[in-house]
């Protein structure tokens, strides 16, 4: 019988290119990412809600082209330019707008491709520096659309696999039926299942129902 319980290990998600799940929701993003040499000013913003696949695609691009990947939330001051290309994941969380503006200018002057990710279109990023916002609004931006049923099911399976959780297909369908249709809710539910399994030593229908109740589905 397959092992049902989650393991208390450091289980990081896989960002390998082969583990990315293609879908109509991310087709436009994948098309633009396939040709970085065609980006206007060699710059592109990829945006979408949490869990939509932005960070996965950011890692894919960095690995595919040998670009440096940095977290926007950690960008401060004048960062050194990478040799080939630059990915700023969660650039909308940058605490230093002047540093982000410098990064855009420096990459442009050096002819480096620059990929930025964020949760909203760049015109809605929370910066007040006029020159930065003007530059962001002028940047080509591609959004990841709402996931299809097929993509949601595949994402749930991937989150479970990342945590080495074996969950019966019927219980996976129960989650998909009652959870909000977004990637963040799937990830939250799998995290809760993992914690519940470690705490109680079981992972069954009652565990799934309890997680759904805690996430606000009173019909379960």
Query: What is the alpha-carbon Rg in Å?
Result: 20 Å
Residue share in helix: 40-55%
Strand content: 5-15%
The quaternary state of the protein chains shown equals single chain
Summarize the main sheet.
5 strands, parallel
Top-tier CATH class of the largest domain: Alpha Beta
Number of helices: 8
Shape: elongated
- Could you tell me the number of beta strands? 5
Please give the alpha-carbon distance between the first and last residues: 27 Å
The poorly predicted ranges are 1-10
Q: Please identify which CATH superfamily of the largest domain we are dealing with.
A: P-loop containing nucleotide triphosphate hydrolases
The helix-and-strand class reads alpha/beta
Number of domains: 2
What is the residue-averaged pLDDT?
91
Task: Tell me what the structure shows.
This protein is α/β, with parallel strands linked by helices. 42% of the residues lie in helices and 10% in strands. Helix 3 (97-110) links the parallel strand 3 (86-89) and strand 4 (114-118). Helix 7 packs across helix 8. The model is unreliable at 1-10 (pLDDT under 50).
């Amino acid at each position: 019988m397959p092992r049902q319980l989650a393991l208390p290990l450091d289980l990081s998600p896989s960002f390998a290119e082969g583990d990315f799940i293609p879908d109509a929701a991310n087709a436009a993003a994948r098309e633009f990412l396939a040709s970085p040499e065609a980006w206007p000013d060699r710059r592109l913003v990829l945006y979408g809600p949490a869990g939509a696949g932005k960070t996965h695609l950011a890692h894919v691009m960095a690995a595919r082209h040998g670009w440096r990947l940095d977290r926007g939330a950690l960008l401060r001051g004048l960062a050194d330019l990478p040799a080939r290309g630059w990915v700023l994941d969660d650039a909308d969380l940058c605490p230093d707008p002047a540093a982000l503006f410098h990064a855009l200018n420096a990459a442009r002057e050096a002819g480096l491709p620059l990929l930025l990710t964020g949760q909203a279109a760049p015109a809605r990023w929370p910066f007040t520096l006029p020159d930065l916002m003007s530059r962001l609004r002028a940047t080509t931006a591609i959004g990841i659309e709402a996931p299809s049923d097929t993509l949601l099911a595949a994402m749930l399976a991937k989150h479970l696999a990342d945590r080495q959780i074996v969950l019966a297909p019927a219980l996976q369908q129960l989650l998909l039926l009652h959870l909000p249709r977004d990637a963040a809710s799937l990830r939250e539910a799998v995290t809760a299942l993992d914690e519940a399994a470690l705490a109680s030593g079981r992972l069954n229908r009652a565990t799934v129902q309890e997680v759904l109740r805690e996430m606000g589905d009173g019909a379960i």
